[in-house]
Amino acid sequence: MRDLIRNYKMITKRRESTDSGAESHPLLSSESSVASFGAIQDQCMFHDSDTTDYEAEKFQNKTLKTEVSPKHSFMQRPFCFPGRYEAPSIDIFAHEEKVYERFSYFSKINGVLNMSTSSLIRKNLDYEDSDDIESPKTHSSLVTIFAIWNTIMGSSLLAMPWGMEKAGLFPGVFLNILVAGICLYTCYLLLRVNEDHGLIGQNNEVSDLCRMLLGRWAEITAKIFSLVVLIGALIVYWVLMSNFLYHSVHFLYGYILSVDDFPIKNDTVICPKELSLLNITTLNSDLTNIPTWEKQIPTWSFDQFWDLYSTVPILLAVFMFPLLNFKSATFFTKFNSIGTLSVLYLLAFVAFKSYSWGINMDDWKIEFNLKPTFCALSGMLSLSYFIHNIIINIMRNNRYQENNGRDLSVAFGLVTFTYLFIGFAFYISFPLAKSCLEDNILNNFEKYDTLTIIARLLLLFQLVTVFPLISYMLRMDIFNNLAMLYKNWSYEFSYIKVVIVNLIIVTVCILFACFLPRIGTLIRYTGAISGLVYIFMLPIFLKIASLRKERRLSALKCMFFIIIPIFGFLNLFSQFFINDN
Fold this sequence. Notes:
By secondary structure, the chain is an all-alpha fold. It has 2 domains: 2-7 and 29-85, no CATH class; 96-254 and 310-577, Amino acid/polyamine transporter I, CATH 1.20.1740. It is built from 22 helices and no strands. It has helices at 2-16, 34-41, 53-63, 115-125, 141-152, 156-167, 169-197, 206-213, 216-257, 272-289, 292-295, 302-305, 311-320, 337-357, 375-384, 391-396, 404-429, 450-485, 495-515, 519-534, 538-549, 555-574. Helix 9 packs antiparallel against helix 20. The longest helix has 42 residues, at 216-257. The chain is globular, with a radius of gyration of 29 Å. The N and C termini lie far apart (72 Å). It comes from Ignelater luminosus. One of its GO terms (molecular function) is metal ion binding. This is Amino acid transporter transmembrane domain-containing protein. Its main location: membrane. Belongs to the amino acid/polyamine transporter 2 family. SLC38A9 subfamily.
C-alpha cells in the first residue's frame, strides 16, 4: 500500500513539474495513464507491501477513475516504469506443468471424474490456448462430499461380491470397515500435513510434501507409483471394455440373425466356472467320436472370429487407438456425468436383482468364518478406497476449509455404505453357489438379460470416454517426469512421441486382456502395490517427519504409526499366496 501511494505521488509530482502543453518529453504516452499503471499493478504483488491485492484494488477504485481501453491492456502492450518500481516478472504458468499429476485418480481404477475436479482439468487442458486465467472455483460441503464419493466409485463395484466370497460374508464386512477407516485416517493425515507445511499460494501435491519433508527419494517414489495406479487403471479398463464389447456384439449378432433361441428376459443367471468345465468335457468327448478326415477340415464360425481372449482386445485397439492421439483430451471431460449415472444404475441393478431373487443362504453360521483367501479382498479394498494422490486438490476446492475433516468422513461413510450394499445384497441373494460369483458380476448373467445389456452398453460408453483421458494424463505424467529427471529435456508436442507412448500402452493392455483377463486379480495387485506407498507409507512418514520437525514426536506415537506400514507390507506379501482359480 505504501508503494502504491508513493508511486502515485511520484507520477503526480512529475506531471506537475512537466509542461502539460509540451509533447517532446512526455512522461508516458497519452494512452499510458495512471489507469495503465493500475492495470500493471493488478497483476503482481508488491515486495514491500503490507496490504493485500484486494486493498490495493480498493484504493485504486476510489482514487483513479480513468477507464482502461481493452486494446491497451498490459497483456498486449509493454509498459515502461522507473527501474526501482518495475513490476516483477511472474510466470503465471509456473505450476501448470504438474496439473496431470493432480488427477492420477482417476487413476485410480475407478476412472470417474468428479464435479470438483472436472472444471480444473478442463481449464488446465486448455491453458496453452487460453489468454485468461480464471480463479479456481469453490464448492459447498455437499458438492465436495459427492465429488469424493463419485471419484472413488468405479470398477471395484463389479468385483465387490467376488471379494466378499473370498473373505467370507461377515469378515468381508469387517475388512471393508477396517480398510475404509485406515484410508480415511491416512487421507486426513495428508490434509493436516499440507495445512501445516504446504506453501501458501501454491498448489501443493503429495509429491511436493514428500520433497519438502522427506527428500527427493520420496518425491520420485510418489511420482512413480502415481504412474503405477494409472497403468493399472488402463489395463483394467481395457479388460472391461473387451468384455462389454464382446457380449454386446455377440448379443446383436444372435438377435439380428436369430442364431440363438434364448429369449430376452431378466431372470437368467449362470455359473461361468461350471460352464467352462462342462464345455471342456463335452469338447473332449466330441473330438474322440469325430473321424480323422473330418478333423482336418477347417470350419469357420462367428465364435472363432469373435473371441474374447484373442481377437476382441486387438480389434478394440483399432477403434480406440485413434482416440488416444489427440493433442488435447478436453472433449472427453464433457462426459463426466456418465460416471455418476453408471454408479446409480449399478445400485438400482443390484437392488432389483436382489429383490427378485430373495435371500438365498443355506447356513449363516459358516459366513462368520474367515477364509484363507481373505487377503484378496484387503488388496482389492486398498484400491477401492484409493484417492490419496488427489485428495489435497479436491479438498482445496472446498469452500469451508474448516469442515474438511467432517466432509471427508461423511464421503468415506457413503463410499463404505455403497460397497457394502453392493457386496452384501448381491452375495446373500445370489441363487447359485457362492463359489460361482465372478469378479465381474455381469458375467453371472446371460447375454440376453435385458438389464445386463443396458449395463454393459452404458459402462462401455463410459469407459470409451474415460480411457483416452486417463491415457492422456499418463502420457503427460511420463513426459513431465522425464523433464524433471533430465533438465535439458523439454517436451514439445510431437505425434511421433505420442504415437510411440500410446503404442506401448495399448500393447501392454492387449497382452493383459489376452493372457490375464481377471479384473479381480489386477485390482488386488494394483491396490496392494500402490496402496502400500500412498496409503500405508507416505502419509505416515510425512506425519512422523512433521511431528519431528515440530518437536512433538514421541516413542508412543512412533510405535502407533509404524503399525500401519506393517499392515501394508503384510497385505502386499499375502497377495502372492492366493490362487484365484
